[in-house]
Design a protein that fits this description.
This protein is of the alpha+beta class and about 300 residues long. The chain has seven helices and seven strands; from the N terminus they run αααααααβββββββ.
Length: about 300
């Protein structure tokens, strides 16, 4: 039986071979794919209940999200460009040219199919939408979709899925040239709950637009190197980072993603435009990010819309 995006992403897998097998998973026939998706949609909300009951605080037992074994590949038509550089600054804050050509009709069609499959699940929370794309990155929905969860090389076309994320903002990107972590979070908010509720998007592609979003759950105190919490963060809250300049000033740049859990020095984040592999790829993935580095934890934030 096919299980939900969040269940797959939350599964504890004991061996690399098991994960690799999941990443290579494909549907044998269109009929088989339709059958699997029908089962998945029927069982989606029931399967979510254990994790999402009251959105358990992070200090309680939470699922162990599996990090990708390797970055998603480039599309087959761009394999000769696979070693080209992409954004090479902290979370893509610098506008390094990449993927600025218009996607082809075939690429746009694949992007539409990915989004249509997500929308077929219906009433999903923002974090569950992000988890769907993590499934896509792992190959759960077939190998041909995996490249659409990452930025494409300089001389490739723009990734139409990433371009779609910017529809939740007022920013019109130059292909894959613009940092897209905030666009991804805004898009997950916009698409959540079957679009039956007014989404509290910031309308901005800047991660700094989330620094005052919702309610503050936790902040990071650099003097004591400690996290100050007004309440326990929950799976699916938003994590906001700020880039620190060499002179100690706070940059307008940073990062935003979805909270999974944390320890004393790190936060585990599900987000877009996060580093993966070598050469560096910007992708949708799960990463442990340090609280205190050039990219410093600003706050963890919550909102009723996330539930």
């Amino acid at each position: 039986m096919t299980i939900s995006p969040l269940q797959r992403s939350a599964s504890c897998v004991s061996t690399n071979a098991t994960v690799a097998g999941a990443e290579r998973a494909v549907y044998a026939t269109p009929e088989k794919r339709a059958e699997e998706m029908m089962l998945s949609r029927r069982t989606l909300m029931a399967g979510m209940s254990a994790l999402w009951a009251a959105r358990a605080p992070a200090k309680a037992q939470v699922p162990q999200f599996i990090e990708l074994l390797e970055p998603p590949p480039v599309p087959p038509q761009y394999r000769s460009l696979a070693d080209e550089p992409v954004m090479n600054q902290e979370f893509g804050n610098e506008l390094t040219p990449q993927g600025t050509q218009q996607p082809s009709p075939e690429e746009n069609e694949i992007a539409r199919n990915i989004i249509a499959e997500l929308e077929a699940f219906g009433n999903l929370r923002p974090f569950e939408i992000a988890a769907f794309f993590l499934d896509v990155a792992r190959g759960i929905h077939g190998e041909s979709w995996r490249p659409y969860t990452r930025a494409w090389p300089i001389d490739a076309h723009a990734n139409p899925v990433i371009v779609e994320f910017f529809r939740a903002t007022t920013t019109r990107p130059l292909g894959d040239r613009t940092a897209w972590c905030a666009a991804f979070v805004n898009w997950c908010l916009l698409k959540a709950h079957g679009r039956t509720r007014v989404a509290p998007t910031t309308g901005s592609a800047a991660s700094a637009s989330f620094r005052r979003w919702g309610t503050t759950v936790a902040t990071y105190d650099t003097a004591s190197s400690s996290t100050i919490m007004s309440q326990d963060p929950k799976v699916g809250d938003l994590v906001v980072f700020q880039e620190m300049m060499t002179d100690g000033r706070v940059s307008i740049f940073g990062h935003v993603g979805f909270f999974i859990d944390m320890d004393e020095k790190r936060v585990r984040v599900l987000g877009g435009n996060q580093f993966e592999g070598s050469p560096v790829v910007h992708a949708i993935n799960v990463k442990w990010l340090p609280k205190d580095s050039s990219l410093m934890l600003h706050s963890i934030r919550t909102h009723s819309f996330l539930s």
